[in-house]
């Protein structure tokens, strides 16, 4: 996949904070601008997580809706009806972290092909591990240096500092559950690819379904995404990862940016209007 233009907005601040138990927390910043060309390309990239442009005409034919109405009523979380706005921010956060893993860290994020397009209820978040990245050295042959990255993302773009203070801790706590639910997430992903006859993707997933016989490396991550209006260094300093079962491989990140909820709504608006 070519490098999307919006990824230039995501920049490492160089600041590293520490949790209460001494783990490093990287601070990244989203410096987005009102560049119409970049925002339109970003909206297309965003839209195709929910519905491929090549498939939308066939999908909307049954309900006989325009592209815009189909996306807004069937695919996208609501901008006003609860819990639509919070689902929007959550989906945005997951997709941005998926972009980070794929275009900055060079993993292959296969889950972006099915995670949002298979939602049965637009206003609800998808269950299971948030973002799963794959790095294969000698595909199709398993290699112990192959790597599975499992990241949890928690977004909070409205309200004050108090409401967002626990966002990193929430991501850490959910990441701690990934060791138990990764097998279910991988199986669901494999089945979706199998059902869609996406055999290459299905085989890449299958490589990671039996760690005992085919060992690989695992990296876990917990990411909090917040607006500058509800960010505080306390998000890092009050967080605690000492009870995480995979704390030795746990990567902690905070991503902050200005006017984040406005950006989220603008991307959804463009994604529907420009379909």
Number of folding domains? 1
Low-confidence stretches: none
Distance between the termini: 20 Å
Q: Class by helix and strand content?
A: alpha/beta
List keywords for this structure.
275 residues; alpha/beta; 6-stranded mixed β-sheet; globular
Tell me what you see in this structure.
- The chain has a 6-stranded mixed beta sheet.
- The mean pLDDT is 93.
- 39% of the residues lie in helices and 18% in strands.
- It starts with 9 loop residues before the first strand and ends with a helix.
- It has one domain.
- With 275 residues, it is an alpha/beta fold.
- It has helices at residues 36-50, 56-61, 67-75, 84-104, 161-164, 167-175, 178-195, 199-206, 234-237, 260-273, and strands at residues 10-18, 24-30, 131-135, 147-156, 217-227, 250-257.
Short description:
With 275 residues, the chain is α/β, with parallel strands linked by helices. It has ten helices and six strands; from the N terminus they run E-E-H-H-H-H-E-E-H-H-H-H-E-H-E-H.
Helices and strands in order:
Elements (H helix, E strand, L loop, with lengths): L9 E9 L5 E7 L5 H15 L5 H6 L5 H9 L8 H21 L26 E5 L11 E10 L4 H4 L2 H9 L2 H18 L3 H8 L10 E11 L6 H4 L12 E8 L2 H14 L2
Parallel strand pairs: 2-6, 4-5, 5-6
Antiparallel strand pairs: 1-2, 3-4
